Amino acid sequence: MRILLTNDDGINAPGLAVLEDIAKELTDDIWIAAPEEEQSGKGRAISLTHPVRTRKVGAKAWAVAGTPSDAVLLAVQDLMPDAPDLVLSGVNRGQNIAEDTSFSGTIAAAMFGMQLGIPSIALSQAQSFRERGSLPWDTARAWGARTLRPLIEIRWPNDVVMNVNFPDREPEDVQGIQITRQGFRDESIIHTDRREDLRGNDYYWIGYKGKLSKPDAGTDLRAIYDGYVSVSPLHVDLTHEAYLKELRETWPS
């Protein structure tokens, strides 16, 4: 099995090294194409207005001066001699759950793999649920292949991307694996922090507050809060099917 590894944290991110360790438990045919610099929050962006350069960093590894989607596209169409059988994106520094999934570069890379007809999985390591800055990479390393093997064996529809999140717990404290749906927080955790530069001009940092919500059972949020590995099937179709039916019925003829 040929596996392509990518991420949105950049070619030198520790999570990419963790992902390579996970992949080595599944195959010895591993290829890497990851952004030259961190691309967190870039979503499904692709570079249409400027050229994208690549830098070879290993026999089967490239740094791509572009977005996560750029990296997957170039790897599949130009850098690799043959298309991969599987795309693994991650392991992201921080969870990609609930509303985060819509602008996550980690998930976007997996989405682009799926768009190219390749089974794809996004992997993320939750952080700061126990204490600020906590990030147990060994949990993703210990539970990664254990979570992926059943998925690879079962397989999934061509229009689905699998989203895997590891909880912010030590490996031995993980409660197990749950199949979940995307949750939604009861309060937005994205916030802005206004500051002033030395010339008196305002500038802003955009980031996250650490407030926990009260998610429903069966959601990715609940699973991560409770110490489970969360596995969620996602897809690109944003159609609101329930309201689509109502809108068609109520639209004036």
Architecture blueprint of SSEs:
Blueprint: E1 2-6, H1 14-24, E2 29-35, E3 54-58, E4 61-64, H2 68-79, E5 86-93, H3 105-115, E6 120-125, H4 137-154, E7 161-166, E8 176-179, E9 190-196, E10 202-208, H5 220-225, E11 228-234, H6 241-250
Parallel strand pairs: 1-2, 1-5, 2-4, 5-6, 6-7, 8-11
Antiparallel strand pairs: 3-4, 7-11, 9-10
Helix pairs in contact: 1-4, 2-3
Task: Provide the spatial order of strands within the biggest beta sheet.
Answer: 3-4-2-1-5-6-7-11-8
**Nearest-angstrom radius of gyration?**
19 Å
CATH class: Alpha Beta
Number of E-state strands: 11
Low confidence ranges: none
Strand content: 25-35%
Mean pLDDT: 92
What series of H and E elements makes up the topology?
EHEEEHEHEHEEEEHEH
If classified by CATH, what would the architecture be? 3-Layer(aba) Sandwich
- Cα separation of the termini: 54 Å
Major sheet summary line? 9 strands, mixed
Helix content: 25-40%
Helix count from the secondary structure assignment: 6
Report on the structure:
This protein has 253 residues and is α/β, with parallel strands linked by helices. The chain has a single domain (2-184, 214-250), classed as Survival protein SurE-like phosphatase/nucleotidase (Stationary-phase Survival Protein Sure Homolog, Chain: A), CATH 3.40.1210. The protein is 27% helix and 26% strand. A nine-stranded mixed sheet has the order 3-4-2-1-5-6-7-11-8, sandwiched between helices. The chain has a two-stranded antiparallel ribbon with strand order 9-10. Helix 2 (68-79) runs parallel beside helix 3 (105-115). The longest helix has 18 residues, at 137-154. The radius of gyration is 19 Å and the shape is globular.
